[in-house]
Structure formats: structure tokens, C-alpha cells
Design a protein that fits this description.
The chain is of the alpha/beta class. The protein has a domain of 211 residues: Rossmann fold. It has 10 helices and 12 strands. It starts with 6 loop residues before the first strand and ends with a helix.
Length: 311
């Protein structure tokens, strides 16, 4: 699909990943991009998706809008995270079917994988167990959009594809301590300790869990490549193909930020999923995506952005 001149709606297009996807589409591909505002189209509410598509008549919809957060936010809001993410996606995909939108790309989550998925995570293992408990409602809500897209493809011939990105990071990430993920949370903790002259920081869990991280610009490129080149029922992992233990991540961020204080681990708090690392071969094979940004380089860019932003 040549996106030049095509009208593309990007839900969540003003968000962390969305803003980079919009940039890639508009400047990189010449698409006519529409970014709906939540105050105009609250996709959780009945009728909003119908109005959005009727008002703009898109050729393609990329669904990035989501209610997301770290372990703490997921534990405190399981019902909200399930309902909002499910209703946004289900109603939007249904309206795409009704209004005959040419393609919909839904972006899911690594949290949809079972808690004890063998590493590296392969797409065919998505259904071998239940997700990690602290974020299962969110992960399952997103997983249902995969099921919906596959069902609609089978019955209606709809071009619906589903992507499974790992944890993203980069400049512009969410650094709110109530809802941020691990990289921005650690960067903020270290900077606040440095500013206050504290010689220790406290981090949730044991530090033994592992995660995979993908730089946000790489993720945006993957979404656009899938929009252009992929038309199939199977979900596709989007990642960098490596893992790092949270303990090693914390030490790395402290080193890059020049912090020599102690890192104390609060083992009374959950680690979340024990390991996360993706098999990314399907994305490379089907639409030519491979991550390009080295992890330390991406971390350094993120740290510098956070240090320089207005307080």
C-alpha cells in the first residue's frame, strides 16, 4: 500500500508512540494524517467511533489509543484498564467494518503473552497460558482485538492486522511516577536523588525479572512498515530481540547518569512477568523491520531529553 496522499486516522496520535507514527506517516510517507482529539471523539463512548469515521472517511486507521501504565497503575485500575481498552478497540474495529475502511492496524501489547511464555516469545505461543496477573486485564482486553480482527478477516474479508510491541522508551516518554514504566521511572528516581543529594534510591521488586525495550522511533517505523506491507491474520512481534534484567538496567541508568548511590530493592513489591524477550523474525520476514537504535544510545537520548525539559 502506497500511503502517499492516503487519509490515515491515527488514534492516540498525540501520544508517545503516536506522535512519532504521525511524523513518519506525514513527512516520511506523504500521508494525509488525522489525529482525533479525545474531547471530540472519546472512543470509549458509544457512537464516537461512528462519528469519527463518518467525519473523516479514512483509507486506513492505525489504532494506538490506549489507557496504559506500569505495574502499580495496573494493580490499582484493573477494571478501568480492561473496559476502556476493550471498548475503544472493539467499537472502532466494528465501525471500520461497517464503513468499509480499507485497512486497520491495531497495536496490542506484550502483556498479552502468558506469564511463563518460553523465551524468546514466539507469536504461536500467545495462547499457551494466562497473562501475568498484575496486567492481565489490560493484556486480555488488547488480545481480544486480535481475535476480533481475525474473525472479521475470516467472515468479512477485512484487512485487519495486529502488532505486539515490547516496552517502548525514548524522549517524550511518560515520567509520571503514578503511571510510568520502568525506564522513565528509574531515570526520574535517579535525577531526583541527584538533585536532593540522596545517596540511595528504592526500586520495586527483586531486580531479577528481565525486559526487552524498543526505542520509540524504531517502533514508529515498524508500525508504518506494517501498514504499508503486511496483510495477514497472524499477530507480529515488534521488538529489538534482546533482554536485560531490571537490576542491570538500574545499574546502567545510574552509570549513564553519573549516580554512585545505592540501589535498594523492595522485594515486597511485585516483579511482574519473570522474563520478556521476543522472537522478532516474523516482522523482518514479512515487512522488513529490524530495530536500529543501540540500547545505550537510546537511553542516553532519553536521559538528556528528561534533563533538559522544563521542570
Amino acid at each position: 500500500m502506497d500511503l502517499a496522499g492516503r487519509k490515515v486516522i491515527v488514534t492516540g496520535g498525540s501520544g508517545f508512540l503516536g506522535s512519532h507514527v504521525v511524523e513518519e506517516l506525514s513527512r516520511g510517507r506523504g500521508a494525509d494524517v488525522v489525529v482525533p482529539r479525545r474531547q471530540d471523539y472519546d472512543l470509549v463512548q458509544p457512537g464516537a467511533a461512528q462519528r469519527l469515521l463518518a467525519d473523516h472517511r479514512p483509507d486506513v486507521v492505525i489504532h494506538l489509543a490506549a489507557r496504559v501504565g506500569g505495574i502499580g497503575a495496573n494493580r490499582e485500575n484493573p477494571g478501568l484498564y480492561f473496559y476502556d481498552n476493550l471498548m475503544m478497540g472493539v467499537q472502532l474495529i466494528e465501525e471500520c467494518r461497517r464503513q468499509k475502511v480499507g485497512k486497520i492496524v491495531s497495536v496490542g501489547t506484550i502483556c498479552s503473552y502468558p506469564k511463563h511464555t518460553p523465551v524468546p516469545f514466539r507469536e504461536e505461543d500467545l495462547w499457551i497460558g494466562y497473562p501475568e496477573e498484575t496486567n492481565a486485564p489490560y493484556g486480555l482486553a488488547k488480545k481480544m482485538l486480535l481475535v476480533q480482527g481475525q474473525a472479521y478477516r475470516q467472515q468479512y474479508g477485512m484487512n485487519a492486522v495486529h502488532l505486539l510491541p515490547v516496552n517502548l522508551y525514548g524522549p517524550g516518554d511518560n515520567f509520571d511516577p503514578a503511571s510510568s514504566h520502568v525506564i522513565p521511572a528509574l531515570i526520574r528516581k535517579v535525577k531526583e536523588a541527584q538533585d536532593a543529594g540522596r545517596d540511595a534510591i528504592e526500586v520495586w521488586g527483586t531486580g531479577t525479572a528481565s525486559r526487552e525495550f524498543l526505542y520509540v522511533e524504531d517502533a514508529a517505523r515498524a508500525v508504518v512498515l506494517a501498514t504499508e506491507r503486511y496483510d495477514g491474520p497472524d499477530p507480529v512481534n515488534i521488538g529489538a530481540g534482546f533482554e536485560i534484567k531490571i537490576r542491570d538496567l538500574a545499574l546502567l541508568i545510574a552509570r549513564l547518569m553519573g549516580y554512585a548511590g545505592t540501589i535498594r530493592w523492595d522485594a515486597s513489591k511485585p516483579d511482574g512477568q519473570p522474563r520478556r524477550c521476543l522472537d522478532t523474525s516474523r516482522a523482518e520476514r514479512l515487512f522488513g523491520f529490524r530495530a536500529q537504535t543501540r540500547f545505550e544510545e537510546g537511553l542516553q537520548r532519553t536521559i538528556e531529553w528528561y534533563r533538559q525539559r522544563p521542570s
